[in-house]
């Protein structure tokens, strides 16, 4: 008994420091592990995806975004149909089973291609499109699940900590990739990724058990319920079109995408010009991912809970666009590799360290159907539509150079700042209304 007391005291002190209540500790641990496995699996493959974009030719990146967008247009209604007809406790694991099977099929395809000396271009393009779909769907489903099982108050305290689990995985994934990709080859990373995804499914079952036995949040449909969400396969589109709140979230995301695609496309060109082959390209992207994810971890674990509490949701959301204004202004003045790399790492670390956990809190004040269908549509089809528009726009105006594109990005970031503040005000109004309906 005495041997366990110091350990229990340490766990209790840690939980108190992080804002976790005793009854939540097991659920937060499983959520942390779930997101850790999910993003470890993804980030082991993300650097491979970036290298595959180079294999297909950097001039063809806009076509890859177009392929991804059309894949999303097919996948989003399919997901909406499944969500309408099957309980969440059934379809959530099967989303991940489907993608595990996909990973193993790509492993077989890459192995066959290499063993038979076939051209890698088309399978590389297919992998780029597929992984872009995979990332958005599995992460969107994850956060819908988190918004389902935790209350608004819990989300404000816990989502940053849970996000840190993802950043831990997102840090480990590229480190493993950078260490192993050259000696074992990129294709052998795929089965390792599939294994991590399988453990994420086990975490779902543990969280589902916790959600069905707890005695809180009875005002929402339960994740353990056998009742489907209902509605139609295309309900997410209608919900988005009729909600100014959701439209504002989607618009902010499209602007953010434009700025992200601008840095991504120029970064790909510079990496291709500087480093020799696919494995070396993969290593460079993995190192950059590791740096940004280490910074994201600090933001998620320590900063986001305090910024949301002290500054509010709107100001927390406005931090990234304000940094983007300054970053693109600096890039316009000095458009060199080290500056664009620094801007990309800083923007992405803030995105995942502060903005993404805060954005996921926004869906705690909407209905279950909006949480799964509208959120999923925004974060998949609309997200990739934004990528498509951004990539072709940047290609069209590419003649003005990196300096000119950076100058275009500055006023867009200013508009994004104002939009973030508006979204924060709407969130507070909705949250206050929900509290009044419970107490009234």
Automatic annotation (TrEMBL):
The record's listing under InterPro entries reads: MFS, MFS_trans_sf
Which keywords belong to this entry?
A: Membrane, Transmembrane, Transmembrane helix
Transmembrane spans:
25-43, 63-82, 94-112, 127-146, 158-182, 188-207, 245-264, 284-303, 315-343, 396-421
Q: Which domain of life is it from?
A: Bacteria
Establish whether keyword Transmembrane helix is in the entry.
Answer: yes
| Protein's UniProt keywords contain Acetylation | no
Q: What is the lineage of its organism?
A: Bacteria, Pseudomonadati, Pseudomonadota, Gammaproteobacteria, Woeseiales
Q: Which SUPFAM superfamilies match?
A: MFS general substrate transporter (SSF103473)
GO MF term set: transmembrane transporter activity
In its UniProt entry, what is this protein called? MFS transporter
């Amino acid at each position: 008994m005495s041997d366990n007391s110091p350990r229990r005291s340490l766990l209790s002190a840690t939980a108190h420091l992080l804002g976790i209540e005793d009854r939540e500790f097991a659920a937060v641990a499983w959520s942390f592990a779930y997101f850790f496995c999910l993003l470890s699996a993804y980030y082991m493959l993300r650097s491979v995806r970036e290298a595959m974009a180079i294999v297909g030719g950097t001039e063809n990146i806009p076509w890859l975004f177009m392929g991804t967008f059309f894949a999303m247009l097919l996948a989003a209604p399919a997901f909406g149909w499944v969500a309408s007809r099957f309980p969440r406790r059934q379809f959530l694991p099967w989303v991940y089973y489907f993608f595990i099977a996909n990973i193993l099929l790509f492993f077989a395809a890459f192995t066959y291609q290499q063993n038979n000396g076939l051209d890698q271009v088309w399978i590389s393009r297919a992998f780029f499109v597929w992984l872009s779909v995979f990332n958005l769907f599995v992460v969107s489903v994850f956060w819908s699940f988190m918004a389902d099982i935790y209350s608004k108050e819990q989300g404000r305290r816990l989502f940053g900590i849970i996000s840190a689990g993802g950043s831990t995985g997102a840090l480990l994934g590229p480190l493993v990739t950078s260490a192993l990709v050259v000696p074992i080859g990129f294709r052998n990373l795929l089965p390792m990724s599939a294994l991590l995804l399988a453990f994420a499914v086990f975490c779902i079952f543990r969280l589902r058990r916790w959600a069905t036995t707890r005695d809180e949040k009875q005002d929402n449909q339960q994740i353990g319920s056998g009742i489907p969400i209902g509605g139609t396969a295309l309900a997410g589109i209608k919900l988005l079109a009729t909600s100014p709140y959701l439209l504002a979230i989607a618009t902010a995301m499209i602007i953010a995408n434009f700025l992200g695609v601008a840095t991504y496309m120029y970064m790909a060109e510079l990496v291709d010009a500087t480093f020799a082959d696919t494995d070396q390209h993969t290593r460079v992207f993995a190192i950059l991912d590791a740096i940004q994810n280490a910074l994201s971890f600090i933001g998620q674990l320590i900063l986001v809970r305090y910024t949301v509490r002290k500054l509010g949701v709107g100001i927390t959301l406005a931090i990234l666009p304000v940094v983007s204004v300054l970053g693109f202004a600096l890039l316009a003045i000095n458009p060199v590799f080290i500056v664009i790399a620094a801007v990309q790492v800083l923007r992405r670390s803030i995105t995942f360290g502060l903005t993404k956990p805060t954005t996921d809190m926004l869906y705690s004040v909407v209905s279950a159907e909006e949480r799964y269908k509208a959120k999923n549509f925004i974060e998949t089809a609309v997200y990739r539509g934004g990528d498509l528009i951004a990539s072709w726009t940047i290609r069209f105006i590419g003649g003005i150079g990196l300096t000119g594109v950076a100058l275009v990005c500055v006023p867009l970031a200013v508009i994004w700042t104002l939009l973030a503040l508006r979204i924060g005000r709407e969130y507070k109004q909705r949250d206050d209304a929900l509290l009044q309906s419970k107490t009234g």
